[in-house]
UniProtKB/TrEMBL annotation:
InterPro entries: 2Fe-2S_ferredoxin-like_sf, 2Fe-2S_ferredoxin-type, Adrenodoxin-like, Beta-grasp_dom_sf. It comes from the Bacteria. Its cofactor is [2Fe-2S] cluster. Keywords: 2Fe-2S, Iron, Iron-sulfur, Metal-binding. PANTHER family: FERREDOXIN-2, MITOCHONDRIAL, FERREDOXIN/ADRENODOXIN. This is Na(+)-translocating NADH-quinone reductase subunit F.
Length: 120
């Protein structure tokens, strides 16, 4: 089982293949946002990788980051990443202080849209 370390929260075992956005809410209990329901249309599920950033990304994530002008190194969309290795992240987009009424809609178990993989 991969280990997910969330800065200022703790370290958690996560089922292999689980979406990072789900692990952040289910296992780690964070208030990570995911306003679009985890389909790479917004950037509210942003995390900053401290260690273990995946080398690959979905085409959808790459395009969303480009369109939204998110260019900081290590900042990724948790809805487009599966937990298949140990990683350490910092949650940078949280419900607390956002003014939103909730974290976002339900997130499918599989990455949406269907992933086409590329390099970052």
């Amino acid at each position: 089982m991969p280990k997910l370390t969330v800065e200022d929260v703790g370290t958690f075992d996560v089922p292999a293949g689980k979406r990072l956005v789900q692990a952040l809410t289910d296992e780690a209990g964070t208030d990570q946002l995911h306003a679009c329901g985890g389909v790479s249309r917004c950037t509210t599920c942003r995390v900053e990788f401290v260690e273990g950033e995946p080398d690959k990304m979905t085409v959808a994530e790459k395009e969303t980051l480009k369109v939204r002008e998110v260019t900081q190194p290590g900042v990724r969309l948790s809805c487009q990443i599966t937990c298949d290795h140990d990683m350490t992240v910092k949650v940078i987009s949280r419900l607390e202080g956002s003014g939103r009424k909730d974290q976002g809609g339900p997130v499918a178990d599989e990455i949406q849209p269907e992933p086409q993989w590329t390099t970052k």
